[in-house]
Specification:
2 strands, mainly alpha, elongated, 12 helices, two-stranded antiparallel sheet, about 5% strand
Length: about 400
Amino acid sequence: MDILEHLTMDNILKNLSSLSGDSSFFFNFTDDVIHDDRETIDFIIRYVIPSVYILIITVGLLGNITLVKIFITNSAMRSVPNIFISSLAAGDLLLLVTCVPIDAFRYFFEEWIFGTVACKLIPVIQLTSVGVSVFTLTALSADRYKAIVNPMDIQTSSAVFWTCLKAVSIWLISVLLAVPEAVFSQVVHIQDKNVTFTACVPYPLSNEMHPKIHSVMIFLVYFLIPLGIISIYYYHIARTLIKSAHDMPGEISEHTKRQMETRKRLAKIVLVFVGLFALCWFPNHVLYLYRSFNYRRIDSSLSHLIITLLARVLSFSSSCVNPFALYLLSESFRRHFNSHLHCRRKRYPERTMSYVQSTSAVRMTSIKKNATPPRRQRTQAGGLALGGFADGLGRDSESEDTLRP
């Protein structure tokens, strides 16, 4: 089910608690708070929420689209970890263009207005995105474990093929796990304080055990179990690295050393991704569990509302932080990212001037010494220009690309 809905529906709906929420919560909420709090809530809904959601969508689309474009247009970047990272970005994009806008619009309507199809489809999309994220991070951790434990393994074309197959399998599994959300989600009409309003609910309202079972299963499948597996992988990675630091033979080649350092850095990048995911989603899971097991208690305090909103925003933020974490941690990705954002435009005039100055210098030297014929002048001039470009490529190729194993 749509995980965010479970964190915003108030216990006014009794045993309904869903992560993507329903704005009716806020209108019922205002009946139980003092006037000053109502003004604060009105300010949050009218100004803070739209600004934050627009920022999340804009930043997330910019970062993830650029990341996917880099990996698609650069064949040298199509490595095993990069395929997983691209899949991760695709899942985030799916969430950003569907669930986030609809969730933002809910604050401005007293009830669910998107119909039965959206009620069933949006929860599936969001849970699929969350599944793709956490399961891909688990696969990335397994890949880094293999790379560290067997550093001499060479990545082949078949490895890339099998990685693509794994990525597709992760998507299929995530969709299948989310299908029950479409089966049980339904649009219902709820009577509250002599007012009837429409809401999208994640499961039947007839049994109070439904929210408890659902919240525990979501927490286990999409958080605790995957992070537990990832922790085991990184425990063994740490042990292997500590052991290899003591047992590494002195005659090991420089290339092997650079490869090991590159794989260590990529392991750190994956660990940062995992940490960001856990940080962003943990508050949501805690709140959902709390609401599911305390559904008879209505917490109408302003502080509870603010905490809930912060948890929602933090969850959506998980869909836009990975590209920028990669930007900070990977020099090669930073170069490609700047290039795709047209940051190189400022350097084009400098390269042109450098080429002209180099050409002029060669020609002037040749004229003064009167030792080089015109055809030779052009060859030397071109040689300088091509030589500078080749040097640049050489530095790039020798640099340790943190995006490649």
